[in-house]
Amino acid sequence: MSKLVIENLHVSARDVEILKGVNLTLEEGETLALLGPNGHGKSTLLGAIMGNPNYTVTEGRIALDGKDVLAMSVDERSKAGIFLAMQYPSEIPGVNSASFLKAAMNARREKPMSLFTFYSELKKAYGEMGVPFEMSNRNLNEGFSGGEKKRNEILQMKLLDPKFSLLDEIDSGLDVDAIGVVSKAIVEEQKKGRGFLVVSHYARLYDLIQPTRVAIMINGRIQYEGDPSLIARIDQEGYEWLKREHGIEIEKENAGMNKVSIGTCAVKETIK
Ligand SMILES: Nc1ncnc2c1ncn2[C@@H]1O[C@H](COP(=O)(O)OP(=O)(O)OP(=O)(O)O)[C@@H](O)[C@H]1O
Ligand SMILES: [Mg+2]
């Protein structure tokens, strides 16, 4: 069984330390929900695992089945079975969606697929994700709506079939139907035994995909871990109780980071 191990990970962006010693293990077959107040380092962690050049790893280790992930290029990480659906997918002008997918899928095979096989798989994936097939002719994410970009990320995941998928707020901007389509695709991959690290602020997605564990990131560290019942508690109460019951300070001391006050929770803020 594959295993992704993160040890004492320290990551900086523009010389500001964001991750301050993250320890986390993810096995295939697990779905880990990663929660935490805005600006505390969740996307930074996912970006660092995938090799986003905006983040500099200053200390620590990431290993996939004992292999040093930090020594791999982004491309090698992808081929090794890591996939990232970004919080804000980039628009890539000049890169045709279908050509990109064909190149990415062929890069994982010894022999390139026949055009017939490729188009059959492509059509099936577009159909299952409820994305019009004509969109495969458009440039990657260029002019896509917020929801279209998110569906497209999951479509890529389906076609690339990674061991570990890192999904960063995949539910943001999705309409009710799209949340259903996206979570169904995730559940199908879960059934195949794939591993997931899923960042979301909303219990609704987690209700649909049923994580096996929960981790809470505060001030650039995983400060609390527990079972999925934590999600309902955070949804109702925010993060205040972590300070009250466990003495975990939530205010960020670092001037380089956004100020987030105790108890900030996206759901609580919206329903005020
Ligand atoms: N490239 C960058 N340059 C400078 N600062 C950055 C960069 N990327 C992230 N940061 C800062 O690092 C901190 C953590 O950001 P990150 O995006 O990881 O938070 P998050 O936990 O994903 O928040 P959210 O829930 O709002 O998505 C923030 O204060 C952010 O402004
Ligand atoms: Mg984020």
Q: How would you describe what is shown here?
A:
The structure is a single chain. The protein has helices at 42-50, 74-79, 97-106, 115-129, 146-160, 176-191, 203-209, 229-237, 240-246, 266-271; strands at residues 3-13, 16-27, 31-35, 56-64, 67-68, 82-85, 164-168, 195-199, 213-218, 221-226. Helices cover 37% and strands 24% of the residues. The longest helix has 16 residues, at 176-191. It is globular. Strand 7 (164-168), helix 6 (176-191) and strand 8 (195-199) form a beta-alpha-beta unit. It has one domain (3-90, 162-271): 3-Layer(aba) Sandwich (Rossmann fold), CATH 3.40.50.300. The protein is an alpha/beta fold and 272 residues long. The chain contains 10 helices and 10 strands. The model is unreliable at 253-272 (pLDDT under 50). The strands form 2 sheets. A 6-stranded mixed beta sheet has the order 6-7-8-3-9-10, with helices on both faces. Magnesium ion (MG) binds next to helix 1.
